[in-house]
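**User:** My hope is that you can spare some time for a protein that puzzles me. As I understand it, each token names a local backbone shape. I would be glad if you read both lines and explained how they fit together. The protein I mean follows directly.
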Amino acid sequence: MSDPHHSCNLSHQHSESIANHSHEHGNHNDEVQPALQTLIWKQIDFENIRTLNELESDMGAKIVEKPWPLRLNAEPMLESDADEQLLMFVPFTGVVKLHSVLVRSSEHSSAPRTLKLFPNRDDLDFSAATDLQPTQTIELSQTSEIQDIPVKRTLFGNTYNLNLFIEDNFGHGATRIYWLGFKGEFSVLNREPVEVLYEKAANPKDHTLIQGVGDVASRHAM
């Protein structure tokens, strides 16, 4: 049921004050159960998240670590420092088949606008993120609704980490983000196939059929 007093207050609040307003959108915009079925959260390596150009230390990690039930809360908040750009590195504890990126910002001009995605790199800085061709570029909306943006799944099928480059916003001097999430499928890293392949190479019958394998094995034994 709509609360007239609440609506009146909203009209006089600053456009960044979204905590109370956000709860009126959650039920019809985000189906909780389907989201939880594919939500990647526990599989994120929170301790190794890095964010460049954040105003307050570790805020990038905190908006990712914010759990699903608190996704509509206005705090903690990631804000950029020197300019509107942000560069985040989010590692996973295994392999993710990424389906979508979820972003919550606001209707204010500080909302992020252009998001560039670079999977499986741990060497990006602002210069490289600006010069390199991203795997995918996403145009975000100026809204306080949660944006669930699909990625090109064929390009993010084996994602170990994800770099998110916020290139610009809607005109404000700083960019602000309140929540960041991911949907996809998760697989634990498994090196067993490599070990099996090594054992096959050591089979004596293989040494008689493939010339040169015995010499390689001898060199490794030295």
In short: The radius of gyration is 23 Å.
